[in-house]
Amino acid sequence: MIKVENLYKKFGKNQVLDGLDLQIGKGGIIAVLGPNGSGKTTLIKCILGMVIPDKGSIEVMDTPIRRTWKYRSEINYMPQIADFPGNVRVRELFDMIRDLRQRPDRQEELVELFGLEPHMQKRLSTLSGGTKQKVNIVLTFMFDCPLLILDEPTTGLDPAALIRLKRLIREEHSRGKTILITSHIMEFVAEIADEVIYLLEGRIYFQGSVEELKKMTKQKNLEHAIAALTTTTADA
Ligand SMILES: Nc1ncnc2c1ncn2[C@@H]1O[C@H](COP(=O)(O)OP(=O)(O)OP(=O)(O)O)[C@@H](O)[C@H]1O
To answer: Boundaries of each ABC transporter domain copy (predicted)?
Structure first.
């Protein structure tokens, strides 16, 4: 589904991706983890073509993504911070996106699931953080795509909305979708991920199951396993 080879990206003097190699097969929930600033969002944006790498190659669904954008229509991307135009109403935003994508959608069902009906006429700038995140979720899950990329999807959600999000992610998983997620909430990752990728110093430091990571670090839970990885590498 995704193949990244020898990827380099520098911002000024900051070498964020430093010869990163990564392969992700089709189907499954993959958590991209790493300390703050380790390059998770940069990697995701390179895969989406939103950040141009200095060197290296990326294939998405067997297609090299250099100088092409068509593959993007097969990806549902949920950004970490959704920069919605503040003066647009929720309903108008949904209509705009539906007009742009021109394919069947699940808007009505998802608006009901996240209780967004009372907010449909409101301007985006007037919504609470959690409600904005629900709008972000509806936009992400509205269309049927083989690849979903979710950057910190749980931010600001109340427990009921979090349960619904997890259900949605599992549903997509059971339909054979590939779902890439970044998160700092280890409880969420442990519950949902089939595979964990740990980014450190611009490369993949670990790729495997949560169970394998716990075994490798001799820890009983994921939070401690990740903390052990961070301490070990910081001490090295
Ligand atoms: N457009 C940019 N210009 C300059 N520096 C950037 C830019 N985008 C990212 N960076 C820097 O690259 C590094 C990696 O950032 P990135 O957002 O990819 O990290 P992250 O792993 O997603 O972090 P977090 O866990 O905090 O969300 C950081 O030091 C960040 O400041």
So the answer is: 2-226
